[in-house]
Amino acid sequence: MYGRDPWGGPLEINNADSATDDDRSRNLNDFDKAALSRPLDETQQSWLLGPGEQKKKKYVDLGCIIVSRKIFVWTVGLILAAGFITGFVALIVKTVPRHHKHPPPPDNYTIALEKALLFFNAQKSGKLPRHNNVSWRGNSCLNDGKADKSGAVLKDLVGGYYDAGDAIKFHFPKAFAMTMLSWSVIEYSAKYEAAGQLNHVKEIIKWGTDYFLKTFNSSADSINQIVSQVGKGDTSGGTSDPNDHSCWMRPEDIDYPRPVTECSSCSDLAAEMAAALASASIVFKDNKAYSKKLVHGAATLWKFARDQRGMYSTGADAATFYNSSMYWDEFVWGGTWMYYATGNTSYLYLASHPKLAKHAGAFWGGPDYGVLSWDNKLTGAQLLLTRLRLFLSPGYPYEETLQTFHNQTSIIMCSYLPYFSSFNRTKGGLIQLNHGRPQPLQYVVNAAFLATLYSDYLDAADTPGWYCGPNFYSTNELRKFAQTQIDYILGKNPRKMSYLVGFGNHYPKQVHHRGASIPKNRNRYSCTGGYKFRDAKGPNPNTIVGAMVAGPDRHDGFHDVRTNYNYTEPTIAGNAGLVAALVALSGDRTTTKIDKNTIFSAVPPMFPTPPPPPAPWKP
């Protein structure tokens, strides 16, 4: 029987084949061995093995996402492990005792700075702010200007500061005080911030500048008069003419007339007030509207000072107390501040003009040369312009005068050092900048500020020192001078007395100050009724914290007697210099330095701006 082979060949079936099952089995075994001796290809393997079983993966449905169970288990495990470790570490941190690193205690200069600023709070006139922090002071002289019978145009003169231990508002030394405070803030705002006093000192300055804007028509471009004084100090009329010197009364109880003094030829006062407003405009540069208002007022005052020449104290009541010697130094000083506030080079041209410098006494010296005060600002102006030369180097046409001022500043700094005999010193080490005359401390603190500031200028300019003749001195010498003088004031003197009220344990108790010497109670004491407190032998009932008194004599002697104002009376001009010196010396010199750039905020580039680079070349 024949059949068809499905693979294409004949298939013959032999029925006669009688082979036994054993034979077949043996033959099959032979075939199997032959097949196994050859490797099978993939197709043959798939025939024999069939479809393989695939391992089924397991998933976890989280609602918004489906993830592998293995990944899910690992993720949850890692989260739990991290939580356990975090909790364990937190437990250790909480249970292990910790040693907090406290900031270093404030140095004496920082402590004294806070107290010295409080004195200005005690001197405020008008309606006091809510948080004035002087419990024995209250609103006072709320009718200043309004009840004046002299025909003064300006009728609102409420506010400002009383000058010293009386209630007179002398604008000449007050303007100098505000300028000094502003200068210190411009240079050392970071130190004020570190001491926690930046807002306080700015509030003090603004209280003063707000008042100055009332003393002339600050909205006008041109004026013909300004107010120079409120109150009266002439005691020639005795008690029949009650005024701020003949009476001993708390400012809150004043009921006598307070005349207003105006001037129409007062270049010195107007230029100093311009300096006060101009420097304050830099302090408040972030308050653009107020800064602009200050600059405008300063420009108006400056124009008045230049157009109507004269000295404010000529024939005036102020001549007895704050007599002005000239106005040329205020032109250099005020012109410099006007330049810094506006960037207008016409002010710099004037301030650095050789003829103006000559008139101001820059080339002829004198016994008070190098002594910065409310009357003589030349030394301060020279240092301000030396700053300009050190950091911006404006060159021609200013360089000749600026170089002269730089050299003279170096000579002045040499004169402060104990190696030279320009000024005598007491046995206790206090420099006699006023040559033994009374009330020396106001001059000492100004010199300490200038010396520290100049040393910081040189450090900022990467200059390690300066020459005094053939000898080179490190900037540390200037700082050492400033420290010894301020330390003397704070108690390192033969009497072991601090001349800053409230600092240390031994300080003047009978300060020449009407408000501090009369108790605050329900009683109102008349003009002469307060004499019993003036003449009392005991300490003042109110401590006027932060007041720097006039100071010791040339023999380091001091008489704590209320009626002797040459020893015990404080002034705002003196305290302003003290504040400036204290902030300059405070803190860490290596980490907190001067602000090199803020004072130049309005100053344009000295040289043309280079053109932008060309556009990149394109093929």
How would you describe this structure to a colleague?
The active site is at 512, 560, 569. It contains 19 helices and nine strands. It is mainly alpha-helical and 619 residues long. The strands form four sheets. A three-stranded antiparallel sheet has the order 5-6-7. Strands 1-2 form a two-stranded antiparallel ribbon. Helix 5 (171-195) packs parallel to helix 19 and helix 9 runs parallel beside helix 12 (378-391). The relative contact order is 0.11.
Looking across the biggest beta sheet, what order are the strands in?
5-6-7
What's the total helix number?
A: 19
**What is the strand tally?**
9
What proportion of the residues is helical, as a percent range? 40-55%
What is the CA-based Rg, rounded?
43 Å
Largest sheet: 3 strands, antiparallel
Give the overall shape. globular
Would you tell me the structural class of the helices and strands? Answer: mainly alpha
- Termini separation (Å)? 92 Å
Low-confidence stretches: 1-19
- Percent strand: 5-15%
Roughly what is the average pLDDT, rounded to an integer? 89
Helix and strand sequence: EEHHEEHHEHHEEHHHHHHHHEEHHHHH
What's a concise summary of this model?
With 619 residues, the chain is mainly alpha-helical. The chain is 43% helix and 5% strand.
Name the descriptors.
single chain; mainly alpha; two-stranded antiparallel sheet; 9 strands; globular
